[in-house]
């Protein structure tokens, strides 16, 4: 038995059951004309179906907040007192697209080394929704993903012909539906075949050519390619690409406060910023947009895959869609390889 | 548990090395917390309110009495470290990174080359070698700075000489003071004038990027095998254990795979440093 085929009412009943107050529930909601991940308190806020636009930002904040307090400090007589924030509560993130869940798997490769992230990650379940259409900038199939992909998902929901296939993929996923699934009708082999057909149909609409695996080494060898210059010329160094990326994991650590009391914070950072690498003495190993754009592309398509196997890009297309200078990371890869 | 939580350290001693270089000796506030490190490892030192910065641990683990950092006052955190007094509390995370392959040097002739505040990175392995002097062959120290007043650890030179070390000091042209009896010239040029035969000799060289580049080229020209030349990379770092992305040079993550690196390894990295 792989899973169940449930109606809108049954699915909603399950979502309501998750909102029983024992965990934090984060899901796509409509806000100011956008779809965004937010903590929800009622099931009717949740925009699960993929007929709603993809969320403007990935769900990265649920695991790596844009700013978080690592600990606070307070000067006391004869010393300093440190205080760590309370342990995170259990949470379930519902409605991630397969690309965003894959982005979480990339974050895990980098960030599970610290207990602060690992604690939160262990208490987080991911529920993905298979895509029933691809957006204009989507290119997951070019980077090893799929509109029906299940990487990092604890439970997958597939919208199918007016109903929903629900498939647990991990013990955590099984636990999430444990109370609700009694009485749900099992999905048939035909249902899963229909889901496969739907996946293939969506894949066929994604036109970006897959990035060949040998390009990982090829890019690493093209560090000095002349093409980098023209590719980087348009970059404004705004860092937006990293801020909308589900797999970018780089962060800064800084103190907010004074000598008497304050907090040490972790905040998102971007290799596109000049400050990212500048030494205290002023020397900067990556002083130009060229050097920084090259680092961004090579980290995602060469250095990270050389170490971890997978590309550090999941093809969500947000950076392509939102870059104010119109930079398309796919084109950067192709032009360096063909230049 | 939180890997970003620093260990609280009390400043046991503060020493002014030059006008803008200072050494702090730190001891754990909780005395039962044992500190272990290897020569070449670094830590994230913090002043609460100013932040953290990565500094090499300047003393070897062989001497006891806490750990030392020697730093130049050059940014917000080092400015904060420059102001703390003995008895005050600062933060320390670490030790992180790899260390100098001291056991590979047994019985060999050694050269330690430090340019400016680079001497702080040379200090731990040099002092370790001094503490085990009979395990190694000839030891030469080449310490250079812009001016005679900027030479770091100049006051220790006599003690090094008493341990049978040849100490050569050099300053940039114009950096001499009246009665200066050291060399005048850039470190690579002075090193070349020393005419030390490469035969099996190990070279440790640390310093600012420009000096390091010209010194590595000089060593190559003089026939030193890149396998026997080691340095440390001093990239900007935030986490110290391979996560934050700041110190990456191609596939090499300096805080995790370094900071100690041979000239041979360095050659295989992209020129992104």
- The number of strands of chain B is 15
Question: How many DSSP helices of chain A?
Answer: 11
Low-confidence stretches of chain A: none
Give the neighbour order of strands across the main sheet of chain A: 1-9-8-7-6-2-3
General description of the model:
- The complex is a heterodimer of chains A (339) and B (273).
- Chain A has 339 residues and is α/β, with parallel strands linked by helices.
- Chain A folds into two domains: 4-204, no CATH class; 215-338, no CATH class.
- In chain A, 32% of the residues lie in helices and 21% in strands.
- Chain A has eleven helices and eleven strands.
- In chain A, strand 10 and strand 11 (261-268) form a beta hairpin.
- Chain A is globular.
- Chain A starts with a strand and ends with a helix.
- The model of chain A has no long low-confidence stretch (mean pLDDT 95).
- With 273 residues, chain B is of the alpha/beta class.
- Chain B has seven helices and 15 strands.
- The model of chain B has no long low-confidence stretch (mean pLDDT 96).
- In chain B, helix 4 (187-194) runs parallel beside helix 5.
- Chain B has two domains: 7-96, Beta Barrel (Elongation Factor Tu (Ef-tu), domain 3); 102-232, Nucleotide-binding domain of ferredoxin-NADP reductase (FNR) module (Rossmann fold, 3-Layer(aba) Sandwich).
- Chain B is 21% helix and 30% strand.
- Chain B has helices spanning 76-83, 119-131, 157-162, 187-194, 209-221, 254-257, 263-267, and strands at 7-16, 21-28, 42-47, 51-56, 67-72, 89-96, 110-115, 139-145, 165-171, 183-184, 202-206, 229-232, 248-249, 252-253, 260-262.
- In chain B, the strands form three sheets. Chain B has a seven-stranded mixed beta sheet, with helices on both faces. A six-stranded antiparallel beta sheet of chain B has the order 4-3-6-1-2-5.
- The chains are: A alpha/beta (339), B alpha/beta (273).
- At the A-B interface, strand 4, strand 5, helix 3, strand 10 and strand 11 of A face strand 4 and strand 13 of B.
């Amino acid at each position: 038995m792989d899973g169940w085929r449930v109606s809108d009412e049954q699915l909603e009943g399950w979502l309501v059951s998750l909102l029983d107050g024992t965990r934090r529930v984060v899901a796509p909601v409509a806000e100011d004309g956008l779809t965004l991940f937010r903590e929800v308190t009622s099931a009717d806020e949740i925009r699960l179906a993929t007929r709603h636009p993809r969320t403007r930002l990935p769900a990265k904040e649920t695991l790596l907040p844009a700013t978080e307090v690592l600990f606070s400090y307070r000067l006391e007589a004869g010393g300093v007192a440190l205080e760590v924030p309370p342990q995170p509560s259990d949470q379930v993130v519902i409605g991630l697209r397969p690309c965003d869940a894959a982005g979480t798997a990339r974050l895990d490769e980098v960030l599970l080394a610290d207990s602060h992230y690992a604690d939160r990650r262990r208490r987080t379940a991911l529920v993905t929704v298979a895509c029933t259409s691809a957006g204009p900038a989507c290119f997951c199939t070019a980077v090893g993903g799929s509109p029906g992909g299940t990487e990092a998902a604890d439970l997958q929901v597939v919208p199918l012909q007016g109903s929903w296939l629900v498939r647990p993929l991990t013990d955590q996923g099984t636990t999430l539906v444990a109370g609700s699934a009694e009485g749900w009708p099992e999905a048939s082999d035909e249902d899963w075949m229909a889901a496969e057909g739907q996946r293939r149909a969506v894949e066929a609409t994604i036109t970006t050519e897959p990035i060949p695996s040998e390009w990982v080494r090829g890019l690493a060898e093209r560090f000095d390619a002349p093409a980098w210059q023209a590719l980087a010329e348009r970059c404004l160094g705004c860092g937006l690409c990293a801020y909308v990326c589900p797999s970018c994991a780089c962060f800064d650590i800084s103190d907010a406060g004074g000598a008497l009391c304050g907090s040490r914070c972790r905040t998102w950072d971007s290799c596109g910023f000049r400050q990212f690498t500048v030494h205290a003495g002023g020397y900067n190993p990556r002083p130009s947009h060229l050097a920084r754009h090259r680092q961004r592309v090579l980290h995602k398509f060469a250095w990270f895959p050389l170490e971890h196997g997978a590309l550090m890009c999941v093809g969500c297309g947000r950076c392509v869609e939102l870059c104010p200078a119109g930079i398309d990371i796919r084109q950067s890869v192709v032009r360096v390889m063909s230049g | 548990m939180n890997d970003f939580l620093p260990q609280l350290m009390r400043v046991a001693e503060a020493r002014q090395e030059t006008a803008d270089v200072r050494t702090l000796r730190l001891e754990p506030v909780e005395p039962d917390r044992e500190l272990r490190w290897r020569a070449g490892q670094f830590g994230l030192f913090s002043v609460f309110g100013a932040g953290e910065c990565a500094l090499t641990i300047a003393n070897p683990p062989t001497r006891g009495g806490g750990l030392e950092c020697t730093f130049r006052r050059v940014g917000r955190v080092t400015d904060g470290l420059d102001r703390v007094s003995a008895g005050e509390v600062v933060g320390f995370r670490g030790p992180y990174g790899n260390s100098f392959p001291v056991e590979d040097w047994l019985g060999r002739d050694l050269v330690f080359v430090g340019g400016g505040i680079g001497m702080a990175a040379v200090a731990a392995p040099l002092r370790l070698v001094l503490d085990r002097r009979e395990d190694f062959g000839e030891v030469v120290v080449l310490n250079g700075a812009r001016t005679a007043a900027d030479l770091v650890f100049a006051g220790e030179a006599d003690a090094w000489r008493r341990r049978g070390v040849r100490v050569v000091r050099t300053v940039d042209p114009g950096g001499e003071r009246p009665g200066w009896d050291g060399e005048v010239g850039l470190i690579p040029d002075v090193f070349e004038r020393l005419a030390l035969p490469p035969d099996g000799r190990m070279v440790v060289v640390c310093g600012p990027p420009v000096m390091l580049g010209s010194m590595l080229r000089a060593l190559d020209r003089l026939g030193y095998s890149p396998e026997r030349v080691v340095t440390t990379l001093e990239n900007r770092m935030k986490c110290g254990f391979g996560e934050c992305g700041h110190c990456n040079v191609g596939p090499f993550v300096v805080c995790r795979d370094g900071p100690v690196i041979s000239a041979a390894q360095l050659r295989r990295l992209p020129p992104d440093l």
